[in-house]
Amino acid sequence: MNALGAQPQSGVQWYYEQYAEALADRYEGLSFEALYEEVLRCLPAPPARAADIGAGSGRDAAALARMGFRVTAVEPVREMREIAARLHPEDVVWLADALPELRGVEGAFELLLLSAVWMHLDQDERPVAMARLSELLTEGGRLVVTLRHGQPPRDRRMFDVSAGETVALAAECGLRLVHRGGGEDRLGRGDVHWSQLVFEKPGERKA
């Protein structure tokens, strides 16, 4: 849901610290079920272990917990974690950590969710991050990535990363594409559209 904030991402993290309350209001105005309608069928069955990377206000992490997943929410911005604690009483483990390394996150997970996060990583960070995500997935695990497309805003660090590049990078890290979709911006921004990608780590999914 938002940028991650390791030292190379500090410019992004500042934005989310400054505007945490307003951004949380925006995120909470969109439902998990509506945003991910086309990929819900791709998710593993609960009680699989899931991680929401860049969890923001906790909307998606809480929704996954209500569905029966065992959820870890990763969010480096303290202000966002505090808002999430206030808004969502669901049983979620919260971690302060950041892409590309995610050094404090321990796998393995059957589901990884990155919503509106990937576009904050630069060309050098994305291969490191994808390799780490692949490491964190179990065999048969799924990675869900949403990508923002359009002119990047000037008030934070962001890149217009293509779906094609992301699919190719995932393949290099041993992940195969199982779904590609997306559509218009749910906030009504005409110059923004989104891709939704679901990848799977080959191997037999553990029961």
Compose a concise summary of this entry.
The chain is α/β, with parallel strands linked by helices and 207 residues long. The protein has helices at residues 10-18, 20-28, 32-35, 59-66, 78-87, 125-136, 163-172; strands spanning 49-53, 70-74, 92-95, 109-115, 137-149, 176-184, 193-200.
Protein described:
The protein has 207 residues and is of the alpha/beta class. It has one domain (7-200): Rossmann fold (3-Layer(aba) Sandwich). The protein is 30% helix and 25% strand. The chain has seven helices and seven strands, in the order αααβαβαββαβαββ. The protein has a seven-stranded mixed sheet with strand order 3-2-1-4-5-7-6, with helices on both faces. Strand 2, helix 5 (78-87) and strand 3 (92-95) form a beta-alpha-beta unit.
Rg over CA atoms, rounded to whole Å, is 15 Å
Across the major sheet, the strand order is 3-2-1-4-5-7-6
Percent helix among the residues?
A: 25-40%
The percentage of residues in β strands lies in 15-25%
Sheet bearing the most strands, described?
7 strands, mixed
Number of helices: 7
Q: What's the domain count?
A: 1
The stretches of 5 or more residues where confidence is low (pLDDT under 50) are: 1-10
Query: Based on DSSP secondary structure assignment, what is the total number of beta strands?
Result: 7
Query: CATH superfamily, please?
Result: Vaccinia Virus protein VP39
Shape: globular
Pfam families: Methyltransf_11
Organism: Streptomyces jumonjinensis
Protein name: Class I SAM-dependent methyltransferase
InterPro entries: Methyltransf_11, SAM-dependent_MTases_sf
